[in-house]
Amino acid sequence: MASSSSSKLVIHVCGWTGCPWYQRAAHIASSLSLLYPTRYGSELHESATRDEFREQLASYRSLVPKSEAASQHESSPFVYAGRTPGESTFVGGCDATVEWARGLLRPAARRLESRTVDDGFREDHGFEYDVVVIGGGSGGLACSQECARLGAKVAVVDFVKPSPAGSRWGLGGTCVNVGCIPKKLMHASALAGEAMRDDAAAFGWDVARRDVVDWGALRTSVQNHIKGLNFEYRVALREAGIDYLNRLAAFEDAHALEVRNAKGETSTITAARFVVAVGGRPSALPCEGAEHAVDSDDIFSSKKPPGRTLCVGGGYVALECAGFLAGLGYPVTCMVRSVALRGFDRECVSKITDDAGRRGIAFQTGRVPTKIEKVGDVLRVTDSTGDTAEYDTVLAAVGRRADAEGLRLENVPGASESLDARTGKLKDEQLPGAPHVYAIGDVLEGRPELTPVAIEAGRRLARRLFGGGVDEPVDYDYVPTTVFTPLEFGTVGLTEDQARAECADLEVYVSEFAPLEHALSEARAARADRAFAKLLVDKADGTVLGFHYLGPNAGEVTQGFAVAMRCGATYDDFISTIGIHPTNAEEFCDLTITKASGLSPAKAGC
After folding, report:
1. Integer Cα distance of 485 and 74 in angstroms
2. What does the record give as cofactor (predicted)?
3. Fewer CB within a 10 Å sphere, N or C end of the chain?
């Protein structure tokens, strides 16, 4: 994906005001520029009348290479596209524009463009390393190992600065140590407890009822698993011939890094290329007493059980942590400044928060903490409404900030131009002012903050740098993800609001149903646990624009359908596929109720 405005594909739509075909083509161009602003731009050349448009046709034709199609086209609209005025190509009229735009958006048909810029690399560069990767998280490890496989001499520099609360961890980055892995394990523990409390008796098991987890035993099991992964990563680097430096890095000049160990001792290493993969860290609460709060860097290794917990934030980290803590038996309150899960499908988010409320999670919306006081062993929190309440733990989950500022990029000529002072992120995958410096993962502006995205970006960058010029840009469209709230949420593609803005004729298929594995549980019936399936379909050609699923095993269900989405699957592809019975995923092969029909999406039986 291009990162500068000069590389946008600008779509020019020429026509007259009263022409409905011009208006439709203009809507398509404007929608593309709105939904994909880094990739597409639009310019409308509108004439007041048909005659005025025809008078301008010659000038429009002069802007595209001579072709029979362009020279014979006389109707409104006249559409052409290009990145610069001198390289525009003729698209056609309205129908041709519709088909052309569909081709752009269909992943299987779209060829992503190369962004390779000469970074000055030469085999006889004279530095210690061909490339130094700064950061030992998912993206950095994947990139370094692929570089080494391709014959490069590689070093990984990784040093974890303690969190404000003093938490430390080893190699593997946020995902392994304080993110995806411990989160999923604690989520699994919460699900196991839920199954034991709510389901086991119905399935014939005689188990003693337990209301709260043994936090110490869970913490120990999770941390032991993580330490095993840390060791495996170090072994993998050694076996790949990669030098691992457990040190904090900062640039001395364009090709030299100062590396500092835990004792404060420094040395210098040099490289022809650098990959910045430092990821990010949680943002602190902007209130008095913020030092009394913990964050996701701390919660998984806390020796003290969380007890009564206030989760501050409305993103997926806040809701996931609130979900597994409540599932483990702790009283949880979520304080959300505005809306929960911003950017996700609003109907699905509403179902998630309703479900969380039924599970005992209290939501306080439209509030933020203004003061946290430590009173004995408890934390007294005052919020923006003036209310106060006491908690054992305050968990800050109000966003993350990239960790690039400490790299002293100002010592690399041209590099600091790519640093966004507000977010701490780098704006470009290859820094324009310092093309031998690259960035991948969460430190990069405008990329999904997801481990598999960082891994794929790292591997492809390695092949680009040392794979004989192979350039395989990552396609950031149709990236699937799952939010591991108690009611799990898998999604890929557009939200309903986005689809309605893009698609002139949208069909929304929905189904609400009880998963079979919950059918015998009176507790789940009383709580009204329901799964939800939703497909957003362009009626013009049946293309599925959005996939949303709420229910058990959402990650497993969504992953498979994401492949179909990337291949341009249609509604007919979904319903003509034989479902696997009895599963939750098969619901997507039998969706027939639309919102427009007014019929209830609630389903009974199999």
Report:
1. 56
2. FAD
3. C
